Amino acid sequence: MTDDTKTIACLVFPGVDPLDLIGPMQALGLVGYLGSGWRTVTVGARIEAHETEGALRITPSHTFAEVPTPDVLVVPGASTPAFRAMADEHLLDYLRTAAAHAEITASVCSGSLLLGAAGLLRGRRATTHWTAFDLLAEFGAEPVRGRWVRDGRIVTAGGQSAGIDMGLYLVEQLAGTDVARLAQFAMEYDPEPPLGPLDWEQAPHEFFAPLAESWVTDGLTEKPELAARLVARLRAAAAAGQQAAVRQEVGG
């Protein structure tokens, strides 16, 4: 690594969702592979194996202290573990310090809520996983639907697979359209989901609503007041959705 090599740091924390992490990391790692003066590392509080929400165990390549001011910071999410991480002041302090220096601070899925908990989304447009969308306002953000949303130096992506789209967008921002196109071909990223595109009017809110509540309450046992406020937002959003559905049915 030369002195002018820039660093992309991808956050690892206990219970991280592996696709949230690996999707954008794979895309961004190709920036350096294609010779554009970047390196991609993983960072965590300690260099030790971390459980994930999948079958993988991931060991960060560097500690927070070793990469205090990356040029790009990527923050993945999770279900319950992401909310648990909101009580980790060491992690939140790292996000604040790293984001103050970074050219771009990005998140995937509920990673945006970690940015929010660190105070980095106040007054900014942002998105997250659709089940947590109504929680963004608790952290002073303006919730915006989108595969990814950029507001200044902050880029937030929707759930899990949206991190790949965002990762390729970031490749384009860092290294140009030609490199981003090469990266997309290298990944053979041309998705054709077997059931077709999602119909958001048919989103199974009734299935996921109790899960989302459990992620909040199980993860925020050390911050019960915040947990209560977030659960209240989830319930208010669910009630509003039910009322809208009734009005639509009656009107139809």
Automatic annotation (TrEMBL):
<dbReference type="GO" id="GO:0006355">
    <property type="term" value="P:regulation of DNA-templated transcription"/>
</dbReference>
<dbReference type="InterPro" id="IPR002818">
    <property type="entry name" value="DJ-1/PfpI"/>
</dbReference>
<dbReference type="InterPro" id="IPR052158">
    <property type="entry name" value="INH-QAR"/>
</dbReference>
<dbReference type="Pfam" id="PF01965">
    <property type="entry name" value="DJ-1_PfpI"/>
</dbReference>
<dbReference type="InterPro" id="IPR029062">
    <property type="entry name" value="Class_I_gatase-like"/>
</dbReference>
<protein>
    <submittedName>
        <fullName>DJ-1/PfpI family protein</fullName>
    </submittedName>
</protein>
<feature type="domain" description="DJ-1/PfpI">
    <location>
        <begin position="6"/>
        <end position="173"/>
    </location>
</feature>
